[in-house]
Amino acid sequence: MTTTAPAPDTAAAGPAPAPGSSPWQLARRELRRRPAVRVSLGIVALFVLMAVTAPWLGALGGWSPHEFDKSAVDPYLGGQPIGALGGISPEHWLGVEPVTGRDLFARVVHGAQVSLLIAFAATAIVVVAGTAAGIAAGYFGGRTDTVLSRLMDLTMSFPSLIFMIALLSVAKDVNRLVLMTVVIGVFGWPGIARVVRGQTLSLKHREYVDAARVGGAGPWRILTREILPGVAGPVIAYTTLLIPGMISTEAALSYLGVGVRPPTPSWGQMIAESVAHYETDPMYFVIPSAFLFLAVLAFTLLGDALRDILDPRGGRS
Amino acid sequence: MIVYLARRLLALAGVLLAIAAVTFLIFYVLPADPAAAACGKTCSAERLADVRVHLGLDQPLWRQFADFLTGIFTGRTLGTGQYAVTCDFPCLGYSYESSLPVWDLLMDRLPVSASLALGAAVLWLILGLGAGVTAALRKDTATDKALMVGAVAAASLPVYFTSVMLIHGVIRIAGLLPYPTYQAFTDNPLGWASNLLLPWTALALLYAAMYARQSRGSMIEAMAEPYIRTARAKGMPERTVVVKHGLRSGMTPILTIFGIDLGGLLAGAVITESIFGLPGIGRLFYGALVNSDQPVVLGVTLLAAFFIVVANLVVDLLYAVIDPRVRY
Amino acid sequence: MAAPLLEVRDLRVTFTTPRGTVRAVDSVGFTVESGRTLGIVGESGSGKSVTSLAVMGLHRGAVEVGGSVALAGQELTGLTERELGKVRGRRMAMIFQDPLSSLHPYYTVGEQIAEHFRVHFRSGRAAARRRAVDMLGEVGIPEPARRAGEYPHQFSGGMRQRAMIAMALACEPELLIADEPTTALDVTVQAQILELIARLQQERGLGVVMITHDLGVVARVAHEVLVMYGGRAVEQAPVDALFADPAHPYTRGLLDSLPRLDTADDEPLPFIPGSPPSLLLPAPGCAFAPRCPRAAERCTGERPEPAAYGDGTGRTVACHFAGVRAVEEAAR
Fold it and tell me: What are the two backbone dihedrals, phi and then psi, of residue B184, each rounded to the nearest 5 degrees?
């Protein structure tokens, strides 16, 4: 396992290692070599850009995601979009929603914002909580380890999707975004905590950690300077692989109608609404599905590549 | 072994108790008023008070929980006097919506969900492990890359998308199968299978993709072990080396995730059952949510948790059978 | 004259890695006769294990093996996997450095030996099982019938290596390749394993290839020695001649860095400065030149080929100065 912490002899050697030999630089070079990585990195960057600039990007199309356009749908055909391919036109770049005539481009872009916001925030909760719990359990051992490990087992025994659905449907008057983030986050941390715990256990007794301890470093210093850099590689790889799962979960919950509430757009919710129309207006079904698919795919490919490089043994424990 | 089993069963009971407590707290305390939900929309204040007493909601919370637990193990009597209803073991209460015992509702739906889960599991194990092992043995070849690209793509497709496409393609356009209506295996095995074929496929595709990725990794790891080299040094045919020495250790890690996945699915695949209109536990659960039918929601959650912890226990016991180094 | 038991000529093993091709073994040749032991010595990365795996035909993946490997006159390179399977394990067998990870953790020791027997002989399960117990007894495992039913993790390190030897010899091979068989073991157990191999060799007339980095092991068991450096044979000689008079500067360095009983305690142990060469970017000249005390300009430009040393022992040395030194010493 490569770690970012230097071995004692190179640390004693004084000058920094030659440029291009640190694990991060190796990782970057390795990433650049793979075409799949470049493509997925591009798509990920595009989605992130889309999510961050959603208000402006959405406005570029000239429509707000909530604005009805009755002129784009045919009232005599049950509110079907006017024109081919679900009403794709210079006016509405990706067509419109049947019945309401809301602009699909604006809704999909704003949906990206909601999906990625929840996915990133939930991932952040999972990573911070999981890493902290994993390091604490691995480093302090004893009772701390017992309690945390039991808690991990317990959380993993929860039927998480059923529980999430139930929890979200019960809670009424709260911010849906925050609630979804927390609920998704709460069930995600044990996975990463186990990986980090295992990694910490193996790092704890490495020579350079012992050397730091003998050298009088306190536990806080050892944790932040020696252990944390050592678990960083697997954590980053694992984190990237968590994101597609989070995006899928958010979409599934919104699909089931317990996620983001209308009129706030979300991909899962758009797909759920479009199912009723898929025979008459297939584009309405295909467009949000394609965005969801691409986002999950791109993050998975990127995560795979990062795992291969940063954590060659797969972080299984 | 006996001691280990006893300890595990005790821990299992503890986990279920904790899950029951958390679930109970959330579903009986958070919502506005379970009595109102049970009583229905046209409910007088007087009737509401009666219902409250009948459901035991006038009791302190711990008392309610204790009664609920007692009900599971021994059955209990709900209400008093002329309204008294006995709820037999194992009592999970009565549905507010249909007034039927939750346990009966669950057992009524279980065959559907179990059929869906087990059939899909067979399908995804064959597809997923087949693809994963093939890719591992042909590592870095075009076959490997094609299989893995397919797997990552299939794993990225949401199950509701695949389901809708399958319904559209196979039922609507090709007209190969009727729209699924569940038939019991005991009534008509052929009808059972043909009606479940599409839901199985939709569910299996997603899991097969994940299993292909997992099993490729663990098979590559297994085939790199020194004992594989020893087996080859003995002059064993490569086929025997792979089947007897590689697969056995390569497939062991898959067992863990299979236990969790199957356990989770036995108590209902909410999305798949909803889309295909299968009357399983998942759809029961979804309907109960919409109607705020708390006892059913609680019942499904507990059943799901039960399946997961039991599956975990079974997996751990199987490990001892597979790996002689594991001793309890 | 009959063909030697094992004859390896011009063996080349090339790995293709993402960073380029690596010639791990280049132009290596040797012979082993029945009842004799060849010791192959070198540091890690010298190509000694790669050589032995190539003889067994055990390389997998992006590897190319060239040259000739002949077992009792039968050419093995170019055989199909199926044909090679009849020789491998049957007429030549191999034992490895780490017996714990080299035995399958899920099968009993007896099963693994019986399985080997059944690959090559049409025998029933019961007969194969009896064979396994007999073999375990022969390698000195007490209560073999009971131990055959145990798993590798229930054996001690030395017992595991004995079991590996029992397995390797179950089909009565003519050649045994032992790749660092004692490295993972305690010193006392090491001696027992070496004695066991020597005894079995005598009883069965086995040809043995002993791969090790430990000159002590070589001195103990080998009849001939092949010293490898950077994927090439640098010196090949009968064991007595080699220890008495190392001809290659690398061999000399190896011998000098052995602790001896007859030198003063406070004298620092000599060592070979520098580190083994990169096989990814091989130098055009002698691989040992950067670390060699005798290196001259010629050494970095022109690679020395193995040549007869001319001391009457059949020794070959790959060094520009090997002959010169012999002349110098004779003149002194």
Answer: -65, 145
Q: Dihedrals φ, ψ of B41, to 5°?
A: -75, -40
CB-closest option in C105, C119, C151 to B236: C119
Return the amino acid letter for B323. D
In this structure, what token pair is assigned to residue B256?
A: 């863990």
Q: Would you say the ipTM is above 0.85?
A: yes
Question: Which residues on adjacent β-strands are paired with residue A96?
Answer: A103
C16: β partners = C21
Question: Among residues A52, A123, A51, A39, which one has the least CA distance to residue A302?
Answer: A39
- B86 - beta bridge partners? B77
Q: Search chain A and give the residue with CA nearest B19.
A: A158
In angstroms, rounded to a whole number, what is the distance separating the alpha carbons of residues B184 and B192? 6
Phi-psi region of B11 (alpha: psi -120 to 50; beta: other; left: phi over 0): alpha
Residue A126 CA to residue A192 CA, distance in Å, equals 8
Q: How far apart are CA B147 and CA B319, in angstroms?
A: 29
- Alpha carbon distance C37, B262 (integer Å): 57
**Superfamily (CATH H level) for C1-91+177-262+269-284:** P-loop containing nucleotide triphosphate hydrolases (3.40.50.300)
The domain ranges of chain B are 34-91, 102-322
Any residues with CB less than 8 A from the CB of B275 and at least 6 apart, and which? A275, B160, B163, B164, B167, B202
Residues in chain B, overall count: 328
Supply angle C-alpha C109, C113, C118, rounded to 5. Answer: 140
Q: Are B164 and B201 in contact (CB under 8 A)?
A: no
Cα–chain-centroid distance for residue C133?
28
Query: What six digits make up the tokens of A237?
Result: 């790889």
> Which residue type does A264 have?
T
Q: pLDDT tens for chain C, 332 residues: list them.
A: 578 899 999 999 999 877 778 889 999 999 999 999 999 999 888 899 999 999 999 998 888 999 999 999 999 988 998 899 999 999 999 999 888 999 999 999 999 999 999 999 988 999 999 999 999 999 999 999 999 999 999 999 999 999 999 999 999 999 999 999 988 888 889 999 999 999 999 999 999 999 999 898 999 999 999 999 989 999 999 999 999 888 888 998 888 887 766 666 677 777 787 777 777 777 788 888 888 887 888 888 888 888 888 777 888 888 888 765 555 555 55
Residue of B nearest to A288 (CA): B161
CA B309, distance to chain mean position in Å, is: 11
CB contact under 8 A, B160 and A285: no
Q: Find out whether C139 and C181 touch, Cβ atoms under 8 Å.
A: no
Q: How far apart are CA A87 and CA C106, in angstroms?
A: 63
Q: How many CB atoms lie within 10 A of CB A127?
A: 20
- For chain C, where are the alpha helices, taking DSSP H only? 48-56, 81-87, 99-102, 109-120, 125-138, 144-147, 157-168, 187-204, 215-221, 239-244, 249-256, 297-301, 322-331
Measured between alpha carbons, how far is A225 from A81 in angstroms, rounded to an integer?
A: 60
* Contact across the interface for B15 and A157, Cβ inside 8 Å: yes
Selected for mutation to probe chain B from C17, C82, C104 (highest B CB count within 10 Å) is C104
Angle at CA B289, nearest 5°, toward B288 and B290? 95
Computed on alpha carbons and rounded to an integer, the radius of gyration of chain B in Å comes to 24
Domain ranges of chain C: 1-91+177-262+269-284, 100-172
Q: What is the pTM of this model?
A: 0.85
CA C195 from centroid of its chain's CA atoms: 17
B143 to chain A, minimum CA–CA distance in Å?
Answer: 17
* Closest CB to C89 among B225, B233, B325: B233
Strands C224-229 and C37-41: parallel
Q: Give domain B102-322's CATH number out of 3.40.190.10, 3.20.20.70, 1.10.3720.10, 3.40.640.10.
A: 1.10.3720.10
Nearest chain A CA: its distance from B298 CA (Å): 9
